[in-house]
Hints:
The complex is a heterodimer of chains A (369) and B (347).
Chain A (H helix, E strand, L loop, with lengths): L1 H4 L1 H4 L6 H5 L19 H7 L5 H28 L1 H4 L2 H26 L7 H13 L7 H26 L4 H20 L4 E2 L3 H5 L12 H19 L1 H11 L1 H6 L4 H27 L1 E2 L7 H11 L11 H20 L4 H27 L1
Antiparallel strand pairs in A: 1-2
Helix pairs in contact in A: 4-5, 5-17, 5-18, 7-12, 7-13, 7-15, 7-16, 7-17, 8-9, 8-10, 8-15, 9-10, 9-15, 12-13, 13-15, 16-17
Chain B lengths: L6 H22 L24 E6 L6 H15 L4 E5 L6 H13 L4 E4 L8 H9 L4 E4 L11 E4 L2 H16 L5 E7 L5 H14 L5 E8 L4 H14 L5 E4 L2 H14 L5 E6 L2 H9 L4 E6 L4 H14 L14 E3 L4 E3 L3 H4 L6
Parallel strand pairs in B: 1-2, 1-3, 3-4, 4-5, 5-11, 6-7, 6-8, 8-9, 9-10
Antiparallel strand pairs in B: 10-12
Amino acid sequence: MTTGATPGPAVPPPSPAPSTASPAAPGPGTQGPPPGKEPSPPPGARGGPGRRAVPAAFADLRNLSLLGVLAALVVVGAITRPEQFLSGDNLQLVLTQASVIGVVTVGVTLVIIGGGIDLSVGAIVALASVWATTLATQEYGLGGMLLCAVLVGLGCGLVNGALIAYGGMVPFIATLAMLASARGLALQISDGRTQVVTVDPVLELGLPDAYVLGIPPLVLVFAAVTVVGWLVLNRTTFGRRTVAVGGNAEAARLAGIDVRRQRLMLYLLSGLCCGIAAFLLIVLTGSGQNTNGNLYELDAIAAAIIGGTLLSGGRGTITGSVLGVLVFTTITNLFALNNLQSDVQQIAKGAIIVAAVLVQHRTARSGSS
Amino acid sequence: MTPPVPSRRGLLFGTAAVSAGAFLTGCTSNESNEKGGAQDPAGGTDDKPGKAVTIGFAGPQADHGWLNAINEQATSRAKTYEDVTLETTEGSNDTAQQIGQIETLINKKVDVLVILPADGKALTQVGLKAMRAGIPVVNLDRIFDSQQAYRCWIGGDNYGMGLNAGRYIGEQLKDKRNAKVVELAGLDNLELTRQRTKGFDDALKNYPNIKKVARQAAEFTVESGQAKMAQLLQAQSSFDALWNHDDDQGVGAERAIKQAGRDEFLMVGGAGAKHAMDAIKADNTVLKATVLYPPTMAASAIDLARALGQGKGVGGLAEQEIPASLTLYSAVVTKENVDEYLPTGFS
């Protein structure tokens, strides 16, 4: 529900656009027009009864400002490349390219909310994609490759989780170690080669024939993972415990939460997301390569932070992270359509990240006063 | 072929063509060499076992099809000589680590060093150090900053790669009015990428009817190739030719082209991967040619290192010493000549 709606408001840009121009002052006034607010109220309304009312309101405002940034980007796109940017094909492309990193980001967001960090996601994606395309896995067809990718992801997540939850290792170090060894293993298994996929059902999943109602299957998986992630975080005991552990682990332990088990599960979920993302990447590129997932860890963490997730844990939303991913992907798309060179792209990307965070802070402050 | 380029480059080209030919013949006949030593008074590299030579080989991490092929070419070439012992270091993209590895090889007192630096400028000092220690260095592909740091340089011609890709595309499109060309470049912070683009642009200047309408840089990976190509296809609703700098990222680029259902243009690849040559041969995709950047240079580097170690010249050349530099030729592989080059295709 939430996911389906998030890309939606990006399309009719005119109304939310002004809200970015002056985000601080008319903040409350703009509450009316954007249709994207429709899905947001649930957390806000639900926030009423509990102590989380204030943080939830913050999160909503943050998402609103991100929607504003996204809308501004859409306006720029519509002005600079009117024929291409708003075309259905391009919209599909943006969503498709957001899906791989998007799925990873959902997992990473949960880990960060739970007070941890996962630096190994890119490497796990690489390992899972290489493993699923080599070692005779392709002989087992689509199902075999999918299963392999998911199992490798879960396996890496299990190692991460066990080291951190039961081995007492700092998440930063444990997942950094996983980053190094998973990349090494991926390089070893692939022997430095690009593993080209020959399994037709896998390849076809990435072609337009496989679209469901005009939506690429990759995007559907991304949407499904987002919805599940949102439900897990907002509608389950597991989600509440995650927030509690991330906010104050000691208090959570005293309240009777099995903190270690909770942490293990979070890294498992992150690994699972990486496995799914790896399979999506195989479908997208028709191959597995040890360089896959390069710098995903940074992109995913950045998207989560921009989306309002607190790096120290205890607060964050799946919707915000997904919006963060969409902002990044839209920027990339915008740059490519306007044929910007990569140096300019990098500078502009940095500037936009700073702008997005600044806008958020101002929105949050004006919301609190 | 050479008129538009400065004469020094022309000289290099000539040297490259001649010596590449010389090496190719050398390649094919190294198992049973019956040519005899009478061919030149200087006594070129023959394959008769000579003085035992230990060659140290240090390269970057083989995380890419082409680099992987470089390592394999070096290793398998060394195995064909019974008088050669190869000491290979673990590949690394970390400058400090690679310097340490080369210093270890110097301390082991290998007879000759073959170095493919991850970064030529950054490794110049260690090349100098080896030369001062009396170990001749064969600098492979990415060139050191100082000519004192190596005895011989052998490598590919990035500028020529762009030039030949541009010429091929130019010839294909010369009768087409307002032809549009798109470039999918490699990693933009590498000098070689800029050289490839420069060569390409220079070649296109000879064809006023052709305009380069877009250029995006990918990262030599399948993933980046797919992503950037998908965007380029969105940005350009139709064009006539595409030059993709690298066949590895080409796997992703071709996938994006298939996903977009486009086929109105011809595509030229770069490097010479086997899958690209197979596609050119089958002639059922947009890929019609690839510009070589042959990893066989690593095998040739071993030949040169052996010759250096044994104090020989090069067969087929009148000189008594091996040359100071050798630039390979970036041949254009098309359907017509693909069979000739298929054996050098790497996967």
